[in-house]
Specification:
This protein is elongated. The protein is of the alpha+beta class. It starts with a strand and ends with a helix. It is built from 4 helices and 9 strands; from the N terminus they run βαββαββββββαα. It has one domain: Double Stranded RNA Binding Domain (2-Layer Sandwich). The strands form 2 sheets. Strands 1, 2, 3, 4, 5, 8 and 9 form a 7-stranded mixed β-sheet that branches. Strands 6-7 form a two-stranded antiparallel ribbon.
């Protein structure tokens, strides 16, 4: 008996289309003056329950990535009297996905074909698992995590939230998450009002060149 299995195909398609942290959101206080922010410090991170998708190593790496990105923007760490306070929020919600797929079981020993479908009027035997078998439906359940990484920025003088950014994604493998932390941090800060100094230098250089021409 030849067992032709189709149920693995939908799962492969779903997993191949999954991109870690493929949803990014941000918002900011339009009245805040981001140009005066020069120093920052970290608040204790929230949601510290250890899971495979949220542990101390993951949080430490994420903190380091954000700290590096703030340095690229000219902000210096100052724990005593910072201009802004940064807060990291990492959440991992367990989820379950259900997939119902088709499984066909058929014989390749052959069935008698209709002679009118062949140019030769003789009866031929040819393999046709679709004509000699049975079709069933199989339901599989898969566990995954809905992971979110959020950075909150508080103005120490105004004493309120002035910016927030979140990246969200469905994760099926903790190892895959580790490779996507750094890109997720960059995507979160892409719309941060304070741009990287390298980007600003390039923008100023372009403006100067255009002005000269």
């Amino acid at each position: 008996m030849n067992r032709t299995i189709f149920w693995c195909i939908p799962l492969m398609i779903i997993l191949s289309n999954c991109t870690a942290y493929n949803k990014v959101y941000s918002d900011y206080d339009r009245t805040a003056n981001f140009t005066r922010y020069k120093t920052f410090a970290w608040l204790p991170d929230r949601d510290t329950a250890n899971t495979t998708f949220n542990n101390q190593i993951i949080r430490n790496n994420t903190l380091n990535y954000f700290t590096h990105c703030m340095g690229e923007r000219g902000l210096q760490a100052e724990p005593d009297s910072p201009d802004i306070l940064l807060q990291l929020v990492v959440r991992s919600m367990p989820k379950q996905m259900t997939i119902t797929s088709t499984v066909h079981q058929g014989s390749v020993s052959g069935v008698r074909g209709n002679p009118y479908y062949y140019p030769n009027p003789n009866n031929y035997f040819y393999p046709s698992p679709f004509l000699n078998g049975r079709t069933t439906h199989v339901t599989e359940r898969y566990d995954y995590a809905e992971s979110t990484i959020t950075l909150n920025v508080y103005d120490c003088h105004l004493k309120r939230l002035v910016w927030t950014g979140t990246a969200k994604g469905d994760l099926y493998d903790p190892a895959f998450m580790a490779d996507n932390l750094h890109p997720a941090v960059y995507r979160i800060l892409k719309k941060f009002p304070i741009k990287t100094q390298l980007r600003e230098r390039r923008r100023n250089h372009t403006a100067t060149v255009e002005k000269q021409h």
